[in-house]
Write a structure and sequence with these properties.
Layout: H1 2-16, H2 19-30, H3 42-57, E1 61-62, E2 65-66, H4 68-81, H5 90-122
């Protein structure tokens, strides 16, 4: 009988170490908390532009885009100048720049189309 009781305790140990349980634990760890969308003020946008201009003068803009050090510099300036708001991450800064940049390009494109149509109608 003692051998039966030892077998059942070994079975309990085996089931507690089953791969499905550890897989579920790993899945829970892999799930990342969804971050809140960062809120940007006009002052933060202005600081972003100022830092980008400074970094451009320092030649930290390659043909393919901005060097990673640029985004770190933006984060540092934002933390220094906007202590009253939640700090931004480099990823949030990069995402915001991409969104603003695309919107600005679209706006410029629409403006060009309007100006061209105005020139045509004036002729």
């Amino acid at each position: 009988m003692s051998s039966d009781s030892s077998l059942s305790s070994e079975d309990d140990n085996i089931t507690s170490l089953s791969p499905t349980k550890s897989k579920n634990e790993k899945d829970k760890k892999k799930k990342k908390k969804k971050r809140e969308k960062a809120k940007w003020s006009a002052g933060e946008d202005a600081d972003l532009v100022i830092v980008l201009r400074e970094q451009q003068k320092l030649r930290n803009q390659a043909n393919s885009g901005w060097k990673p050090i640029v985004w770190t510099a933006v984060v540092a300036v934002l933390e220094k100048n906007h202590k009253d708001v939640k700090p931004k991450t480099t990823k949030q800064v990069l995402t915001h720049f991409g969104n603003v940049h695309q919107n600005a390009l679209y706006s410029l494109h629409i403006t060009d189309i309007i100006l061209c149509s105005l020139k045509v109608t004036m002729l």
